[in-house]
């Protein structure tokens, strides 16, 4: 199976007047940081705030009149759903969209807004994969057309128009392209166009550590299903890659890397504070991956696809928390105090450094106990301040246990 340049060019013509030709933005900050020419393809500036409109519209608009009358069904964690909803409204086609119950409310509301009266939303399952099973069953029962989020030639060709745009903007003068991977539709389309245009251009896929299904598939040499995934980067949180997208990635993608979710959060904050860009977690994955290939891209021209900007503002507290934890600047402890006067004073005076800040303290005195535990959150100014803090605690005899991600209590503190 192959997706030709001609198919992508055809999709590009079909999408004229429907999708925006998004900016290819030169990043002074990233270019200086990595000693390279870094460009960001701003797919967050589409009307639906992601690239997904490209594939969804190309697929639905290409249906026969008879197929359009049957209506369409899809499953999506949010961005593909918005693309399908937009297409249904524009083409006046009925659609039913299944979304995970964990989808941020902002994305659900946007889907309804774009779909207007032409779409029905059903929230089901905890992941995209669970929603997809329900959607496929519904589709068969109602003889509707299933619009796959990634494993479909027309969808892939539509996503490939992203590469058609930036490749022509740069007159083909690009050395490396970094693309986020969920199910693989975007990178399959982009890599197909790039490699058939110039096989010397390197295409690198980027996934979050907690949902690196394409990386695992490549290791296994076949499509695999992950036992569990971290749904934080919901736009790329997929348990199983497509068989078609896997084959195209094997054929055209040079390398696939994964990055920690906490590091993605740190990059999201950098993009917001320094560049004024609101990226969703999935959208920031490709830019986050630059640090892993910094030696390879030195002196080269690099395009990073920022795939979407559908981020609920209410998530920023969690994003900041995850970033601090990743950078080693925030820690949680169970601290065992002797229940006698002066213990808390000693903790504050003799243990905490001048720049250490208590962000959480929960303690209940029990008069019938010799010792009592407290839940304490501490934010440090520097990562290396942790070990001096632990040494001071040990010196004055306060028993302490650091809460790790393996502890059940950790997930009560970090969403």
Q: Estimate the mean pLDDT confidence.
A: 92
CATH topology of the largest domain: Rossmann fold
- Secondary structure tally, helices: 19
Strand order of the largest sheet: 1-2-10-7-8-9
Short description:
With 415 residues, the chain is α/β, with parallel strands linked by helices. The protein has three domains: 5-51 and 154-321, Rossmann fold (3-Layer(aba) Sandwich); 52-153, Rossmann fold (3-Layer(aba) Sandwich); 328-413, 2-Layer Sandwich (Alpha-Beta Plaits), CATH 3.30.70.260. The chain has helices at 5-14, 28-34, 52-61, 65-70, 79-91, 105-115, 128-142, 153-159, 161-169, 185-197, 213-220, 243-252, 261-275, 281-288, 294-297, 316-326, 343-351, 386-395, 410-413; strands at residues 24-26, 37-42, 72-75, 95-99, 119-123, 145-146, 176-180, 202-208, 255-259, 301-306, 330-338, 357-363, 371-379, 399-402.
3D architecture notes:
- With 415 residues, the protein is an alpha/beta fold.
- The strands form 3 sheets. The protein has a 6-stranded mixed sheet with strand order 1-2-10-7-8-9, with helices on both faces.
- 47% of the residues are buried.
- It has 3 domains: 5-51 and 154-321, Rossmann fold, CATH 3.40.50; 52-153, Rossmann fold (3-Layer(aba) Sandwich); 328-413, Alpha-Beta Plaits, CATH 3.30.70.260.
- The chain has helices at 5-14, 28-34, 52-61, 65-70, 79-91, 105-115, 128-142, 153-159, 161-169, 185-197, 213-220, 243-252, 261-275, 281-288, 294-297, 316-326, 343-351, 386-395, 410-413; strands spanning 24-26, 37-42, 72-75, 95-99, 119-123, 145-146, 176-180, 202-208, 255-259, 301-306, 330-338, 357-363, 371-379, 399-402.
